[in-house]
Amino acid sequence: MSDCESVASDLSVGASSAHSAESLASINSLTSPRRHRRTLSGITPRELKVIDSVVPLKYRQEWKKFSVHVIQDKSDFQLGFVRHVETTLGRSLFNCDDLAAYHASARSVKDSLIVMWNQTQQRQTLLGNKRIYYLSLEFLMGRAMDNALLNMGIKKTVSDGLHDFGFHIEDIENQEPDAGLGNGGLGRLAACYIDSMSTLEYSAWGYGLRYEYGIFRQKIIDGYQVEQPDYWLEYSNPWEIPRHEIGIDVMFYGRVEEAFNSQGHAVKKWIGGEIVRAMAYDLPIPGYRTTNTNNLRLWSAQPNDIFDFAKFNEGDYQNAVAEQVEAQTITSVLYPNDNFHKGKELRLKQQYFWVSASLSDIVRRFKKSRRDWSEFSDSAAIQLNDTHPTLAILELLRVLVDLEGLEWKKAWDITYNTFGYTNHTVMQEALEKWPLDVFGNMLPRHLEILYEVNYDFLKKVEEQFPNNPELISKVSLIEESNPKQVRMASLAVVGSHKVNGVAELHSELVRTQLFPEYVKIYGEDKFINITNGITPRRWLLEANPGLAELIAEYTGGTEFLTDLTRLRQLLKHIDDPEFRSRWSRVKQTNKHALASMIRKYAGRHINVHALFDIQVKRIHEYKRQQLNVFGVIDRYLKLKKMTPEQRAKEQPRVVLIGGKSAPGYFMAKVIIKLVTAVADVVESDPEVSDVLQVVFVPDYNVSKAQRLVAANDLSEHISTAGTEASGTSNMKFVLNGGLIIGTVDGANIEIGREVGTENMFFFGHLAESVEGVRKENRENGVSLDPNLAEVFATIDNGLFGDPNIYKPLLDSIRYQGDYYLVNADFRAFVEAQAAVDAAFADREGWVTKSITSVANMGFFSSDRAVNEYAESIWNTEPLGNDC
To answer: Which residues, renumbered to this chain, carry the PTM N6-(pyridoxal phosphate)lysine (predicted)?
Structure first.
């Protein structure tokens, strides 16, 4: 295939070759010397030659007349804004409220993004670099508008343009709902990585699901979490590009038949199943200070046959649309409750729907290049973000063997060299397993392929370690339990050429506790560590513009946003009184902004001069929000025993706790109820409310997180040692000038090493001693710490409402082994909190700790992490200027 044919054949948007060739000429519309009309990292002479040969000059000139240019000045934005108000929205400027102004603004900015997106896709096709495909069931992106404006460098331009029309940009941005396409750290990590891949100019696509209702909207009613639909698409999503022309059929159930091809070889055919169509929605992801704009493709489930007209005419109205309802259920909600059979089936269906559509798309794109299948793993690197996309391994094998006719060994080699697997947990209960009957019923051909993979793998293990049935049992992809189950994490390990953990301790536990048998089989080299990182564009520039501006002034520019190690230059100014004063003022401004948000969403007035102590993350027993609230109750009881004079000398503290519980997670919901009850009691007690306040932050999301991290003095990362893979919220809080109280767990360890343990408050048992404590508790029972016993007695006596509500939570500690070591770590936790009070009382010392911590956070950039993935797993490089 010629270069020209290759360019025209793959724009990944479903356009015809003729239109694709013409659109290639729009590269020339970005050749102005001004920043946003420059070429994508420079168009090389070879590329220009290709363009000239494909698109005659007269067509390129005609194209320029209609080309949408990237916004570079206020008039560019305003022209697009008015056009969208009047034509897209069908309004006039005299009938344009904040919501309409947001949609017009977003669409005007998206016009520019699409220009850059098109150029990026065309350039990537021209260069033919290896493309990274990042498969994640969660992409917790947050709001798109502010991020796009900052990355494109046009926030002031758009702000000024809106101001001329009588709008304030903050009001407009607040009209955008958070896309609830993730539950927590997993989805936020994926969002950081896709930002970094664009910024660093890697050729990359993300693949996920377009959940109609997101995770859920959390309401707190009478202290309880109540889940409500999150109608984030109520007014449409102006940032997405619907691809109605891209529909991929995905099959479930059915049966497998054997047939013979023209060469007389037996082939398997999967037929007779239920068909659901996957429709693509694309979200352009702009890089920072580059026109490189990658793509996030989200799939929406649609019925293959929308409407049964015959049933409707017969009066069977409900069944006439039954197929439509059944299909759309797949992408209705993130993580459907799987506490029952139908829920398990829907979650498995969700995962296969997503990976099948994604693999079909990836393979289609590769086949357009007309390269040999032996080059597939040189063309594509597919990263499995946790076990959710592991079915992609079996699906690629099915495509290569059943549909493309490759022999098994070649198909396996391609698959193995294509996939990488990122593990995010060492807890066995969190590793996905599917009942064999559910799996086989829904995916009969994949079960056959699984058996074949398992047979080949166990045969090699037997050859390597003969007469070792115990090892065979441990590493088999099928767990011989009752019922039998498919081990998805094991499949991910066996089917990937690299397995990585996400923090040093976690990666060590992956090797020694989670997969030691596989390490024995494959060797150490397959299992590596890549510590997580966060994007400083979202989590410093956007979350904390005041601090970002101050840092830029004292480091000589904004280069720290793409090279976070430049933060170390702040240490030169650590004794500068003016710098220190401004540092403190930025924090105080952020605390006022957070207090305003708390009034709006929680109805509480908080003391902005108090220590802000924040724990916000998914509610789970291993993250130990219960330890935090027990510590708060202990503090409350001690304050009640003091005289007014003694209380007046205490350090005022505002404790903010937020997060969502999984809908079916009973114990997590009990923890939320206890936090809200404690908050009410403390709030209504005038003796202590001046020195202690407790607030549950409802409906925690990315937008609220940005306010919280900017205002924090102290953040809590207090998981039981050895249970938190890494954490990334710890990085966000420290990058914004807060200190950590935490266990020696996850990335806390590496943060401590970088910023200095004297600037953190570590406590609790180490990972290596956890099992010993659990064993002691099982054998001898739990002897409650006296202070914790008093806390429990207070709860049992009804101070916080009906004690029967909290009995399961308390009994899990005092009678059921205290699996998460709440009692074992309680005294150390309380002592660490006392050390926090003492340190915060020395405000100048605290400022020194804060500046020192931020200055040493350079390692924790997602840019660094993505570069490590590219070098260690994906074997690819960023796009360069050479063709």
So the answer is: 732
